[in-house]
């Protein structure tokens, strides 16, 4: 798969390919990226970070420095006890938790996320 912007190929990757460069914004980087062995599962982690932020208005991992953020991503767990988490549906919490699983082998895949998203099957 290739991602193209302005007629220039920016990224070319295969789903089976393991990457080893540390890239991306500190707040959205997956633990396996920091260990320099990752694939497309790292993108699902980033979606989990975005979902976390959209649901509660704060980042799942925070520190004053980039290295502190990296440490938190690898060692800390996001909190689901602070407001508004107690008022959110268990489906929404479980969805985010599956996206933010530190083990990429246990993390929800992009295809699973499309099927399991709490709002994906809702009809107006």
Automatic annotation (TrEMBL):
Nucleotide-binding as a keyword of this entry, yes or no, is yes
Q: Which PROSITE patterns match?
A: PROTEIN_KINASE_DOM
Q: Which InterPro entries match?
A: CDPK_Ser/Thr_kinases (IPR050205), Kinase-like_dom_sf (IPR011009), Prot_kinase_dom (IPR000719)
Gene Ontology terms for molecular function = ATP binding; protein serine/threonine kinase activity
What the entry lists under Pfam families is as follows: Pkinase
**UniProt keyword annotations, A-Z:** ATP-binding, Kinase, Nucleotide-binding, Serine/threonine-protein kinase, Transferase
- Annotated Protein kinase domain residues: 1-124
Query: What family does the database annotate?
Result: Belongs to the protein kinase superfamily. CAMK Ser/Thr protein kinase family. CaMK subfamily.
Listed name of the protein = CDPK-related protein kinase
């Amino acid at each position: 798969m290739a991602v193209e912007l302005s007629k220039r190929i920016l990224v070319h990757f295969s789903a089976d390919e393991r990457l080893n460069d540390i890239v991306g914004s500190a707040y959205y980087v997956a633990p396996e990226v920091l260990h320099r062995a990752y694939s497309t599962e790292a993108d699902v982690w980033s979606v989990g970070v975005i979902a976390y932020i959209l649901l509660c208005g704060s980042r799942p991992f925070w520190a004053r420095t980039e290295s502190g953020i990296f440490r938190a991503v690898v060692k800390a767990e996001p909190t689901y006890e602070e407001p508004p988490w107690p008022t959110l549906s268990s489906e929404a919490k479980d969805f985010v938790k599956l996206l933010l699983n530190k083990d990429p082998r246990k993390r929800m895949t992009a295809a699973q996320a499309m099927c399991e998203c709490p709002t994906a099957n809702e009809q107006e």
